[in-house]
From TrEMBL:
Protein name: Hexokinase-2
Location within or outside the cell: Cytoplasm, Cytosol; Mitochondrion outer membrane
Family membership: Belongs to the hexokinase family.
Domain Hexokinase N-terminal intervals: 22-219, 470-674
Catalytic activity entry: D-fructose + ATP = D-fructose 6-phosphate + ADP + H(+); D-glucose + ATP = D-glucose 6-phosphate + ADP + H(+); a D-hexose + ATP = a D-hexose 6-phosphate + ADP + H(+)
Species whose genome carries this gene: Cyprinus carpio carpio
Domain of life of the organism encoding this protein: Eukaryota
EC identifiers of the protein: 2.7.1.1
Leading EC class: transferase
GO CC annotations on file: cytosol; mitochondrial outer membrane
Primary role: Catalyzes the phosphorylation of hexose, such as D-glucose and D-fructose, to hexose 6-phosphate (D-glucose 6-phosphate and D-fructose 6-phosphate, respectively). Mediates the initial step of glycolysis by catalyzing phosphorylation of D-glucose to D-glucose 6-phosphate. Plays a key role in maintaining the integrity of the outer mitochondrial membrane by preventing the release of apoptogenic molecules from the intermembrane space and subsequent apoptosis.
Amino acid sequence: MFAVHLLSFYFSKLQEDQIKKVDRYLYAMRLSDDQLADISARFRQEMEKGLSNESNATAAVKMLPTHVYSTPDGSEKGEFLALDLGGSKFKVLQVKVSEDRKGKVQMESETFPIPEEFLNGRGTELFEHVAESLKSFLRKHHINHTRKALGFTFSFPCAQSKIDEGVLLSWSKNFKARGVQGNNVVQLLRKAIQKVGDVDVDVLAMVNDTVGAMMTCGYDDQNCEVGVIIGTGTNACYIEEMRHIDLVEGDEGRMCINTEWGAFGDDGVLDDFITSFDREIDAASINPGKQLFEKMVSGMYMGELVRLILLKMAKKGLLFRGQVSDALRTKGTFQTKHICLIEQYKGGLENTKEILEDLGLNPSEDDCIAVQHVCTIVSFRSANLVAAALAAILTRIRENKKLKTLRTTVGVDGTVYRTHPQYPKRLHKVVRHLVPDCHVRFVLSESGSAKGAAMVTAVAQRLASQRKEIDDTLAAFALSPTQLQEVKAKMRVELERGLKKDSHPTASVKMLPTYVYRTPDGTERGKYLALDLGGTNFRVLVVKIRTGMRNSVRMYNKIYAIPLEIMQGTGEEYNMFTIIILYKLRNCISDFLDYMGMKNTRLPLGFTFSFPCNQTGIDKGDLVCWTKGFKATECEGYDVVDMLREAIKRRNEFDLDIVAIVNDTVGTMMTCAYEDPKCQIGLIAGTGSNVCYMEEMKNIEFVEGDEGQMCVNTEWGGFGANDNIEDIRTRYDREVDGGSLNPGKQRFEKMTSGMYLGEIVRRILIDLTKHGLLFRGRITERLKTKGIFETKFLSQIESDRLALLQVRSILQHLGLDSTCDDSIIVKEVCGAVSRRAAQLCGAGMAAVVDKIRENRGLDNLEITVGVDGTLYKLHPHFSTILKDTVRELAPNCKVDFILSEDGSGKGAALITAVAQQHYTDKQEPH
Ligand code: 0WK
Ligand code: 0WK
Ligand code: BGC
Ligand code: BGC
């Protein structure tokens, strides 16, 4: 017994010496806790560099967005194909994910070789080899009968702007096929599959193997938010907060980041830890200066590191009595699998002896102990370095979550971690030592990353089908240039029909005469009262005009809201005007005249009345029909001016001289023409939608006289009443029309104006929610509430400056609990609806300006449009899209748009002034 103790003491002493010898020789590879903490801190900084916009381009650790937003949530299901390329084995797999988690995931896989010539040959050949392997797998497993979704695990650094795209930044490990770097590998794969033919698959997602590993482990452990590969290469991914990922838009939620930590140190930050052996490895590699961290850690290089160390120590006589063999001099003869054998507790030394003899060496016992320790130092350094980098990631997650203690799971894969006898234990130990405030569960990814790739593909498939449903829904709102041309042509036909004597009465675009024969010429002057009814607000104004054009108009106004019950008053005759006017107008005017000390002056009044009126004179107009939110009974068909006069007379508190009734488009045109004489068109894109323009009297067949011009109020809101735009009206338009105060009427208006756009959006959102595409499929009472989605929300939601977060708060405010994806979809729906509205107005306007151009027999027309209305004013894109559409559809017209700063009240006053002049001129015989 004593002898045994003596022997083992003698032996351990021996061992000790060898170990010390190696420790001295490789002291640079033995990293202390402080050094590891330092490396961890450096990696932390590299992560931040990679995440920030400013420094990403020069960052060594690229922190690549993966467009994977969450780990599996159990809703994944279906049959998928997966390709796993880039690790030590190239695999093709079929993955069946059953609905109920209990059913687990069935997988069939086959490993295919990658001949050397494809690793270094032309990229297209490599991908054709992959496609051929896929084809033979499908044949062998009789899977080729239905189109299958495919997830592609591609274990190299790729820049991804979406889940099914990946531009290879640089090859690593032993791959360097030509013509791939800088290209979209998903496209290369799709092309190769097409070329090979007879492979019916949809490549829906591309993931890095770290992401695959994380998702695979995440399927069984929801806490898994980190994926680590320690195999041929090494890398890690983790779930980061979107607000920290500058490269991707949006601050909401989280996304998985592929760190590509293999490149840590490529910018020199690890130089003080890189030994001469590492430099040698790097210099002899296919990508010198690149992937320095990987070359200190991963399986492709660990064996070679040991060989170089043994070779050097042998040459220094520290090993094998200075004997060196050809095999030991030859690159790649000593592999990482040898290290795994050598470091086995049981039989490690025997394995060492055998392996060294296979390398043509004749090792002594000491040599074997020394070689075993060299392997330990090399593999231990690898585990330490991985632990240091992983500790940085774990600390970041803990801080992102503002937690004292983090509980999380790390999914791991790779042959080094799988096959090295001590590696996992060492890694776990050092990690827990470096970050004691992180309780980490390490899970080995049993089935490789394919399962994870299938999960990502399942989510991508769900998102893709959702995307398709949303695209199909919104496709109806995407008008093609041809369709817009047709709308322009049809609008032109209706303009003509409205002007023609025989078709005017039945025309859908009413083309109402306004008895305004010219735009202002600067001779107007005087003091006028103006009323402005029909837009968002009711305004009463006093306008002072001094002769001369620029800045010679003074205005004072007060704004009043019109209560709904008045807008849609029912019961005894004339009640609407009576109440509103008397109270509002009287109070305002008397209050104003008091303020101005002009109590008993009788001022001429211009009345902007923004509804279709059949005028027979400047101060005579029968209301054709209410539009927008108005529906007061007993008014349609009656002369509006008479009704107003009647209402005022009833109270007899003050007297008004109503000289003109004006449509808001005309008021707007006049207001703007006062600034720009080329302004001959008035456009309202507000609660309602309408346009007026100066038409040649000779074309207005139902009004006496062929000389000069008259402004025509087109009332294009009625366009479509004769079903000529049913081809572009969607079912949402019909629903909104059906739910409106005037079904069947104002169809064009209901596709273009502020009163209705929000409602169209709401109905689309309901539909998408019904299909489970939004708001988790829950249709809340709020969402069912008509009119809650006011058009102003479109303008806010579509503002570029608004982050998704703010979109969410608007939806929150509407009582719609939404996710980040929901906000993106809502923003898209708003965009589709408002874009169509602007395009339709553009097409209508193109018809008007081209008509004016032809009226004047011009090849080219220069003209200005005066515009008003909250939609045009407040919506971030409406005006631009409208202008672009006019430019495209009426290329021979140079059309300027000027905003009416002062509203149509000023225009009404100018018209009143012109009307008065006209009137007095008629009185005084020249
Ligand atoms: C198995 C995974 C694969 C990954 C590989 C890494 O399925 O995606 O690339 O692990 O380990 P390696 O094979 O390089 O040792
Ligand atoms: C302001 C004008 C008014 C017009 C309104 C239209 O002064 O006459 O009706 O614009 O815009 P809305 O208020 O309907 O958005
Ligand atoms: C690649 C990574 C990959 C890792 C593990 C590295 O060489 O750059 O994308 O995740 O190997 O396979
Ligand atoms: C009315 C027009 C008005 C337009 C803009 C439409 O509903 O019919 O007269 O110009 O709204 O306010």
